[in-house]
Amino acid sequence: NTKSGIALLYNEETNNTYDVCLKLTKEVLTIQKLDVVCTSGSESQVNHRTVVLRRQATGGLGLSIKVSSIQLDMNVACFIYMRLSFISLYHSQSLSLAICINLPRSRQVHLLRTAGDEVTITVRYLREVPSFLKLPLGSPGPDHSRVSSPLFDSGVHLNGNGNNTAPSPPSPSANEPKYEKRWLDAVSLPLLMARVSRYKAGKDKLRFNCFEVFALDGASTNILQFCTAAESTDWLQAISTNINDLTQENVSPFLNIRGLVGSSCECIVHMGWACECPEGSAPGRSSTFKFLALRGPYFYIFKSPPISAADWGQAETTYNLYEVLFKVHKLWMAEDCWLQARLYLGLEHSPEQDTESLCFSILVGHGQSHTFRVELATDLAIWEKSFQRAVFLEVQRIQSKSYMCSSQGNVLCFTIDFASGFTCSESTSKTILWRYKFSQLKGSSDDGKTRVKLLFKNPESKQIEMKELEFANLTAVLHCIHSFIAAKVASMDPLFMCSQSFLGNYTNS
What we know:
With 509 residues, the chain is α+β, with helices and mostly antiparallel strands.
């Protein structure tokens, strides 16, 4: 299905905004800009002229660039359309020059300043430039009888008087070229591994009614603006959905590792972009986009997506899944109902909501953590479900995990087993000191450093028994306990077990 609509494209470098037409397909987002095409007749070289501007000691070339127009200090005017060179629609009496160039203003100024003492501009003659500029989209050539123009409407007149009628041109010849305004493709962004952002680059300030789309190669749409926040969210949701679907469908050929991902231990559960937020309010630190992946035993953090088998070894950070705790920062809904409701009411987010309402944290060993922000509540739902599934699969695969610990000066081995629960044994003789099922764990407390107290209920005496242990990396052990208990509970939930084939299954076969 193709989605299309009109938006505004804002270029921060040139500070220009103009209408564009958006076309969204499953694989590509296309931006179309209004352009002029010759539909009939011939564009004879006779219609092309050359204008030479000579640089003066004072005043330079006699023109200045002002955002979307060039003001001439002489009785020469051109409508310039630039691709590889200056090609214009020429009229000899107008007083201003409207410029339509897809170049930053700084680049335009640089070209003119460094062009030498003489600047030669190729121009193309058109009898009725003002009327032509007034053409609606898809209309034929100008109506020579009574059409006014933007130049007339703004008080600048071709004939030097105040009449709002264009001068009568000679009757057009049969072979004279005819033109139409049409939407032509300007930018096509492939959506595979692309990302979207509603936030200003490197900042936590949310744009209202706006977002950008970035392709894998770094190409960008610039800022897309919409009339309402609801329309902006609708487009953002549609584009994000296509990006996620493409990732799911193309992960095998894109990564080129079919041979490596055949086994369940290499299952790719989910991957995609998220914005990592700096911890606290440390000065000089800004948010940066990271590519996250849940694959096999690990949670990966990349600076850019892995496109080959070797890239998987170049991750910025890698964590064992069973020692990672996923935490959503705030209450959210499975769909974007809450967000949509606020947007339809025109309510902007508070600064706190901007930075935390769609965030999750990855808590890892030694109390370290990473905080990531996503664009939509649906993205947050996908990441939470994907983490649940990835951890469940990893616990099912390893079945048990042992950690060295100490108690009252004795070196012990503490084992978490999916089938039997908790076991503590001597490290050398392997003699089992005590064993409890998961259901017998009734509570715990720790000092936040190395020591933890585990409270178990004795099934025979019904008394609570406390076991105090000390670990080198207490946080990792607590997260592992949480992962095994969560997996055990999930294995007893029919709904969870039935949904496994639908929860972001990025397996490769």
